Amino acid sequence: MASCPEKMDWEDLLSKQRLGRPEDDGHVGFRTDFQRDFDRLVFSSAFRRLQDKTQVFPLAESDYVRTRLTHSLEVSCVGRSLGTRVGEEIVQREGFREIAPGDIGAIVAAACLAHDIGNPPFGHAGEDAIRHWVRTSRVARRALDELTPEQRAEFEHFEGNAQGFRVVSRLQNPDNEGGLQLTHATLGAALKYPCPAHAIDAGRGISRKKYGYFEAEAPLFEQVAQTVGLLPQGEGIYSRHPLAFVMEAADNIAYLIVDFEDAFRLGILDYATVHDHFRALLQGRGQATLDQRLARLRDDKERVEYLRARAINELVEASAQAFVDHEQAILAGRFTEELTDTLPFSEALNAISQHSQEKIYDHLEVQGVCAAGYSVIGGLLDLFHEAVHETAVAIREGERPSPRARTITNLVPAQFLYQYTPDTRAPERITAPYPLLLNLTDFIAGMTDGYAVSLYKKLTGMALPHHG
After folding, report:
1. 185 and 272: one domain?
2. What is the CATH number of the domain that holds 174?
3. Cα–Cα distance between 356 and 39 in angstroms, integer?
4. What are phi and psi of 280, to 5 degrees?
5. Which pLDDT band holds residue 308 (cuts at 50, 70, 90)?
6. Which of the given ranges, 23-27, 252-256, 319-323, 421-425, has the highest pLDDT on average?
7. Which residues, by range, are in coiled-coil regions (predicted)?
8. Where is average pLDDT lowest: 39-53, 213-227, 364-378?
């Protein structure tokens, strides 16, 4: 039996091999493999739907505040800068000739695009709405009774990160083995939590805080983990890809800073509060120059934008240095923190995080719409699962489902009700409990905020189509 390596190897970690394509496709062109990953994600329908998915301020009337789409694009920009900066150190030390620093930046940028692609409507409240449905719904209890304990854990702890891996590796381009067929390097960098749901253990470090893949995608996950050489830490559990720490840092930097900016634009935070918190991140040289620049700007809106840009740049430089400082522990699978927790000004970041929780995330407007999300998502899951389950049981037993069940089931796209046999490619109705619940969750999680609200209103009779 081969012994486990003591640390990960960068040559494996930067694998260009594509999931679902065992052989190199021989593509040679002006785009690198990792740039092609980025483009595939941008042009995917799942990414496009993020334009109407909540970041922090659900269904905001202002066209300024971030959606999941703009947030993901901004994270990818931060990730590209941070990844390229880290890549300069790696490429120089490893002596790579076919990998440039920009390639590592492109891997991180693509992983950043994918980091929220599986999130349901209503932001993080949408994830919790699914978990709440599992805990409280009679329909959910019946559905979970038919699952194994490992399968139940996936829904009890429903996780957008695992849904994201399912989206890019299976649901997008479902006729392709491997879905979007991204490189293993990009997929590895996007896997923040390389463990199954039943292995969640926050006491073992940040990589076990949540889970990163469903049982249905376990073989695909194993392909990624083994190809890039992640270190095994138990059955189905691996160390993080080093660039996953970089992707996570880019996400942390983006949302901590820009949520403050959005709150200022909506009048939730005043300029003095934003200035003081951002200024705490800029304690190096050039304070006098900073003051002069702020004084020249015409209004507080432009001052906040300038401070935001300076703060992000400072955090990128500090996070890159933190990665270099901890690289050996990361490669050995011993590093268990977020990079941003190790920064010299982590206290200032924690102060921003705490203030965001108190003044932004707990704001009445945010909480009110998020609360509505519980009703919408829970209501849709109840209606659709009850109807689809009834029709599935009827099919298994050779009976006819009720008209109500047939009517509601007809509203579910065929891709979530049928699977295709590999040989004949003929559609076969899904009746097994686990894939049935998983596919219905795919249907709900893939909805935009607006579509979920509209559909819920129609199904509950709150809004009906009419003419005249």
Report:
1. no
2. 1.10.3210.10
3. 33
4. -65, -20
5. very high
6. 319-323
7. none
8. 364-378
Is the same domain home to 111 and 211?
Answer: yes
Residue 137's φ and ψ, nearest 5 degrees, are: -85, 135
- Look up residue 294 and give its amino acid: L
> How many domains does the chain contain in total?
2
Q: Are residue 271 and residue 186 in the same domain, yes or no?
A: no
**33 and 23 in a common domain:** yes
Tell me the average pLDDT across 71-87. Answer: 97
pLDDT of residue 467: 53
Q: What are phi and psi of 419, to 5 degrees?
A: -120, 160
The confidence score (pLDDT) of residue 378 equals 94
Category of 87 on φ-ψ map: left (φ > 0), alpha (ψ -120 to 50) or beta = alpha
How far is it, in rounded angstroms, from Cα 229 to Cα 218? Answer: 16
Domain membership of residue 387 (yes or no) is no
Q: Which pLDDT value is given to residue 1?
A: 42
Average pLDDT for 80-100: 95
Contact 140, 423 (CB under 8 A): no
Q: Which of 341, 360, 379 is the last residue of a domain?
A: 360
Q: Which two tokens stand for residue 293?
A: 């620049």
Looking at residue 2, its pLDDT comes to 52
DSSP string, 331-398: HTT---S-GGGGSTTHHHHHHHHHHHIIIIIT-HHHHHHHHHHHHHHHHHHHHHHHHHHHHHHHHHTT
Q: Which residue has the higher pLDDT, 246 or 420?
A: 246
Last residue of a domain, one of 294, 328, 360: 360
Same domain flag for 165 and 182 = yes
- Pairwise CA distance, residues 427 & 409, whole Å: 16
Average pLDDT, the chain: 90
Residue at token pair 């109500």: 404
432 inside domain: no
Domain extent for 303 = 245-360
Residue from 183, 173, 19 nearest 107 by CA: 183
Q: Is residue 166 part of a domain?
A: yes
Q: Work out the average pLDDT over 394-400.
A: 87
Q: What single-letter amino acid sits at 31?
A: R
Alpha-carbon distance values, 237 to 8, 223, 329 (Å): 15, 13, 18
Q: How do strand 232-234 and strand 237-238 relate by DSSP bridges?
A: antiparallel
